[in-house]
Amino acid sequence: MKQQEYWNGVSEKKEFTTPFQAEEFSKYVNKESRILDVGCGYGRTLDELYRKGFRNLIGIDFSRGMIERGRKQFPYLDLRVKEDAKIALPDASVDAVILFAVLTCIRTNEEQELLLSEIQRVLKPGGILYVNDFLLNTDDRNLSRYERFKEVYGIYGVFELPEGAVCRHHDEAWIRQLLKGFSERRYEHLTFTTMNGHTSNGFYFIGELK
Question: What is the pTM of this model?
Fold first, then answer.
């Protein structure tokens, strides 16, 4: 609930800066595909796809504030509030899923695994998953907070932001384990600018449901 309160509280002012690899995504997903953005925020990524000619788009997010902002900003998008851990769509009903800077907001392995199992459930056979997220860093600022908050949360890489959000930077071996249900089509290391203006190691992954 703490996370939900945070994102509702900043929904009108937070601007997401991490770049979406739209050209690469378009190599694996065509404009007729049904695309689901899980943790869509205010719809920034879906709007980028819409402007490129994609129309069969759905976005879900647990932050009602983010969804309300997105509906006002992009009224042509289908944005829905995610009410619980389940994805409110039938089995094998979407061609592609986008998971863009969402894992960083989910601190436990178990919750991340549950989300991936739901994504696998709603994807059609051979469906595409696009993941973009944060990896562990080695600078002093991050190392000190990883150590400090490991005592609180029990996972190295989890930390609190000063404004209250709990975030996670990931060990690459864990990401590989989490995505084992997908055949890798593309995996690239990137350096991102975070919401608060710092830089972080990251990656993007495109995989096909096994």
Answer: 0.91
